[in-house]
Each structure stands twice: as structure tokens, then as C-alpha cells.
Fold:
Amino acid sequence: MQSQSAEVHKNSDSESLSTAGSISTEEGDHAELSFGPLDHSAITRFVQSDQAGAIAIFLGTTRDSFGGRKVTRLEYEAYTPLALKTLSNLMKQARLLGAEPLGSQTTSLIRCAIHHRLGNVPVGETSIVIAVSSPHRRAAFKACEWLLEEVKLKAQIWKREWYEGESPSEAKWKENFPPAASHNPRNGNLELK
Structure:
């Protein structure tokens, strides 16, 4: 059984509403959409286990430039109920990717966590944390990268880039996945064109 919680938050720079929320899976995995800084140490502790020989962690941060323009911040919005359901399903699928031996329904993943920040994320701050624990590093690395790419492709979370010296009407909504890359759903690999 999955558990889910939510809270509403108004972004002061735009007319839309985003909702914070979280979901936990039967397997003990956890996804959360929240406002404010992400605590990557707490998220890492969540996936820790005495059975884990590896923890793979990805931190996505706001960079200060894009395409020769100075970025001042990113803004994220989400359709939270659907985004949380998508994140939960992705974590379940990641467990199948980590199945050992190949084709088995037994996973080598111990625990997964995906935390994504909503609202404004200033330069240098973290917007997403993905953490995966496993007995062995290969499964943890593979699942962590796969989860990141799938979140960018499928989660109902949108990113807006704000540039220095430009009005709010000039801030750009960006695709989470560049069109120059494609994702192979058969093997989960990212293929650059």
C-alpha cells in the first residue's frame, strides 16, 4: 500500500499553484516534492542499510549560465498527484532493472529515494536528489542514472529558467530532456544523436 501526503504552496512570482507532497511504496522507497532546500544527508541516511555495499547519489544543482546567458534561478512546478504516482512507478521499475540474475523478479536494490524541489531554486542550490542503495555498486549506479533520466522524461515537473536583466515574461520554460538525445525504452539506455 502506498501512502501519500500533500500541502499547497503559492509561488509569489507566478500565477500557478504547486503542491508539496510525498509518497512511500510497499518496498520502502520514498519520493517527495517539497519547497525549500533539500537535505541530501538525510536522504542518504534514508537509503542506508547494513546490507548495502553501495549508495549512489545524484545531486542536480542550478548552474549560473545557459547558452551564454546568466541564469539567476530556476523555478519548478509540478502536477503533484500525478508526479508522485509517476515517481513511485519509476522506483518500482528501477527495482526490476536491478533484478539479479537477469530476468529474475528479485531485485538487488535495497532502497530508492527521489526528492525534487519545487518553487525557486537559486544558483548553486540543489533541485533534485536521487539516492539508491544496493549490495553492489553497479546496480546502484545503473538505477540512479536510469531514475534521473526517467524523471526528466516522464515526471510531471516543469522547469523555468530565469535570466539576469530580463523581465518575468522573458523567463523560459525548458524541456527537461534535450531533443538531441533519445531514450531507448527496451534497454533503458540514453542514446545521444
